[in-house]
What we know:
Blueprint: E1 4-8, H1 12-24, E2 28-32, H2 35-42, E3 49-53, E4 55-56, E5 59-60, H3 61-69, E6 76-80, H4 85-94, E7 98-101, H5 106-120, E8 128-131, E9 134-137, E10 142-145, E11 148-150, H6 154-164, H7 173-181, H8 188-203, E12 211-215, E13 219-223
Parallel strand pairs: 1-2, 1-3, 3-6, 6-7
Antiparallel strand pairs: 4-5, 8-9, 9-10, 10-11, 12-13
Helix pairs in contact: 6-8, 7-8
Amino acid sequence: MRPHLALIEDDPDFALMCRSYLERAGFTVTWAMDARAGKSVLHESGVDLAVLDLGLPDGSGLELLRALRSTSRLPVIVVSGRGAEADRVAGLEIGADDYLVKPFSQRELVARIHAVLRRSQPPDAPTVVRAGALTIDTAARQASVDGIPLALRPKEFALLELLAGAPGRVFSADQLLERIWGASWQQPATVVEHVYRLRGKLGALPAPAPRITTLRGYGYRLDP
């Protein structure tokens, strides 16, 4: 089946060019010109991924993304002329799966879409991952330790899920950046910050929790 994309973009020339190229690349595309129409499209059944512009005439694309993330894990690629690091980080922290800065090639957009779809639908992924007292429900996007829920941001959840899927295995910062953020422009400090926050949340639990161990010069591992 052809993957169904929601393209939320207010520039008609750019949107028509994207839609034409994406349809030739094998996608079905539904185009929305503003946040209101985009919200309606995003809640339709059968949409596999959204391509979302941040500068919409009737609202912020970030706010639309924030609202979507409160109810859905639909993959989202943000496209924007805002290339500052703060803008990119904000989009990814709210829950974008990738961030493309305009101008970009249509070929790169197609490659990013395929990559995000692959990451969002891992083959034969277990529904529940356990590592010691830690339990991760990958379908419900929930994690808990001895039944105590963890309040995690999307990237924190993805980081913990990856480490818990292979307890004791060491992942380098570059591997974590590629698998979770899928973006070469991110700095290793991004991983350091997320590990720090995860350790704080695990350490604040009343029950003994798995530890994230740093191996200097190598990377990180989860010790149940």
